[in-house]
Amino acid sequence: MNVGPEEASAASSEKPRRFFRAARTACSLTREETAREGWIVRLALDRLGVSGALTFLNTSDPVLGGRPIQLATASREGADAMERAILALG
Q1: Contact 51/62 with Cβ under 8 angstroms?
Q2: Domain residue spans in the chain?
Q3: In which domain of life is the source organism classified (predicted)?
């Protein structure tokens, strides 16, 4: 296969390809945060069902002060408050 001078020049001037790698933008959770999140998710799924748990955990609630999943993950007190809220709903 013969390559003309124009094609050879264009091929040599191309930058090397890089593979796409997504940047890590999310921070990692500590073991305690992971345990609280897992505990509150399991409780919500058990009491509220899949649809109810997803809606409750991911919808910001002004009375609770934010998204329940974030509040439960952030502190033991937040997890306890979310447990009480889930038990009151289900």
Answers
A1: no
A2: 28-89
A3: Bacteria
